[in-house]
Backbone:
């Protein structure tokens, strides 16, 4: 059992999401950084898509009511009873211990997974909180102070006594996920349907650096910069969308749809972010800058493979460690 | 001299069927590396949507697709993994479109009581300006229409309705309303619908309907389904 001691607004329970219902208008939701969620789960022996806490407003504090294996990945600086934990780390907490997360400069969101996963009801196949739909998680709402969270049955009971961590993806995969010298996030994308209707402005879309405005959340990021506009007004028939679509409302400042995106929209779309780069966008902070880099399907496949290999490696290592610990415990 | 062409496919000369004009081809574009959007050629009408429904049914047999999202005379196909050859995907989609026959979904009829005008009709005056019609005429044209649910999307249970009288088409707003109420009866371009969530909304509101459209815990969560017929019944007109 977990007790939430201190939380800001908009921290929610998320899993890998609720795909499969977009044709009735239900957004997929799920972690903004699915890779961090998966790794947190793998470190505590869960299925990679189990429900965890997504923390995006800090400080965040919770108390363990009994011995519990947990992992913290993504952003945030974690401490257990005041003792700092390394980033991307799993450990076992004792009854009464308090886990605290403070913000980190580089990444916007932290994930806390618990052995057994958070036990909230499945709604349309997922435990993810849909704030817009007001269902999933705990009654479709953000976590609040004094919330009590129940855990499922852990798949593993023996964990490394001194904890276990992984090399964060930004380090392990740094060659494949570059950042510009001035810190600008480089987000790979492909031109989308109405790209060419933007005429000369289309080039300005790719060349300028955009700032993630304060009007950004799990639904989408509004970007500020020099507006781009189609050469003539475009009135579209509504079409299905996915996270990563970059739409341009009449004002000319793009919106990138994120995990809680609508399932359909009608603004002209200039680009679509590669799925493999969405986790980095999910970790981008309000006020930071990004630039879109024109990519290809071939590059998308290379990145997909690199991410899959990284996650598989952690999954295998984690299982190996678990087996070794079990063998030692059995002696 | 060319004769005016009757609106029947039987009357189209054979040679023009064999060499379709370029605009008869669907447009296929991508969103990211895994999602492909097919947009039907031609008018925004029921025949085009029936073919989209048929395409959706055919695509449900494709093992490599994770999700299919029919839109308004378009369809988004989301692949489970990034396809190796996007051109091959485009060709497969084109072929599936060519083969898709029309499906006539005989849905149920849903009647929705509407309070036209009043505090929620925030954009009725703008609609008068845009159309040159009086508020009374706009309300009459809206509630006299018979609408077909073309697709669901955007928000849980939201039905995109086709059948809006062209005289009251109205572009989406340049600046969306930040907090439009659930239940607002709205016009977005050539489409109409009833807002299912309170929140930002770029469509134009002309009235209000208190009608539950979605229950995530129900066996069938969405009230509306593609092919359903919708009629708006004026409960009250506050002008």
Residues:
């Amino acid at each position: 059992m977990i007790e939430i001691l201190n939380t800001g607004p908009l921290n929610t329970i998320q899993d890998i999401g609720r795909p499969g219902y977009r044709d009735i208008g239900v957004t997929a939701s799920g972690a903004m950084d699915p890779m961090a969620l998966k790794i947190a789960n793998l470190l505590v022996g869960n299925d990679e898509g189990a429900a965890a806490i997504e923390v995006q407003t800090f400080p965040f504090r919770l108390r363990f009511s009994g011995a519990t294996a947990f992992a913290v990945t993504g952003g945030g600086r974690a401490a257990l009873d005041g003792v700092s934990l390394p980033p991307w780390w799993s450990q076992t907490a004792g009854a009464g211990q308090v886990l605290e997360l403070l913000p980190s400069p580089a990444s916007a969101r932290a994930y806390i997974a618990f052995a057994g996963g958070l036990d909230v009801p499945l709604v349309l196949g997922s435990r993810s909180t849909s704030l817009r739909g007001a269902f999933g998680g705990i009654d479709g709402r953000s976590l609040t102070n004094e919330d009590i969270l129940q855990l499922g049955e852990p798949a593993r009971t023996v964990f490394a006594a001194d904890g276990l961590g992984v090399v964060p993806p930004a380090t392990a995969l740094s060659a494949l996920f570059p950042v510009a010298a001035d810190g600008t996030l480089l987000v790979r994308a492909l031109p989308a349907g109405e790209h060419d209707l933007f005429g000369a402005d289309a080039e300005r879309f790719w060349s300028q650096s955009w700032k993630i405005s304060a009007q950004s959340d799990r639904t989408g990021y509004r970007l500020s910069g020099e507006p781009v506009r189609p050469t003539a007004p475009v009135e579209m028939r509504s079409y299905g969308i996915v996270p990563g679509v970059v739409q341009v409302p009449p004002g000319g400042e793009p919106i990138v749809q994120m995990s809680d995106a609508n399932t359909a929209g009608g603004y002209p779309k200039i680009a679509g972010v590669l799925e493999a780069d969405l986790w980095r966008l999910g970790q981008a902070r309000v006020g930071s800058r990004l630039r879109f880099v024109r990519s290809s399907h071939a590059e998308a496949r290379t990145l997909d493979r690199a991410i899959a290999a990284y996650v598989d490696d952690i999954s295998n290592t984690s299982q190996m460690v678990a087996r070794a610990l079990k063998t030692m415990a059995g002696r | 001299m060319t004769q005016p062409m009757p609106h029947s496919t039987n009357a189209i000369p054979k040679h023009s069927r064999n060499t379709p004009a370029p605009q008869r081809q669907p447009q296929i574009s991508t969103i990211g590396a895994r999602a492909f959007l097919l947009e039907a050629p031609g008018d925004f009408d029921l025949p085009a949507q029936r073919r989209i429904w048929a395409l959706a049914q055919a695509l449900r047999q494709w093992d490599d697709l994770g999700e299919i999202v029919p839109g308004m005379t378009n369809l988004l196909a989301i692949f489970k993994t990034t396809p190796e050859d996007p051109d091959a995907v485009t060709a497969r989609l084109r072929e599936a479109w060519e083969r898709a026959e029309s499906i006539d979904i005989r849905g149920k009829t849903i009647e929705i009581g509407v309070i036209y005008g009043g505090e929620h009709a925030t954009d009725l005056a703008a609609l008068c300006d845009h159309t040159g019609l009086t508020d009374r005429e706009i309300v009459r044209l809206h509630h006299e229409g018979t609408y077909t649910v073309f697709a669901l999307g955007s928000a849980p249970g939201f039905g995109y309705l086709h059948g809006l009288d062209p005289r009251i088409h109205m572009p989406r707003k340049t600046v969306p309303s930040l907090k439009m109420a659930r239940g607002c009866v709205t016009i977005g371009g050539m489409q109409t619908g009833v807002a299912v969530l309170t929140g930002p909304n770029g469509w134009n509101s002309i009235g209000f309907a208190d009608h539950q459209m979605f229950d995530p815990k129900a066996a069938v969560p969405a009230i509306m389904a593609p092919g359903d017929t919708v009629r708006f019944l004026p409960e009250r007109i506050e002008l």
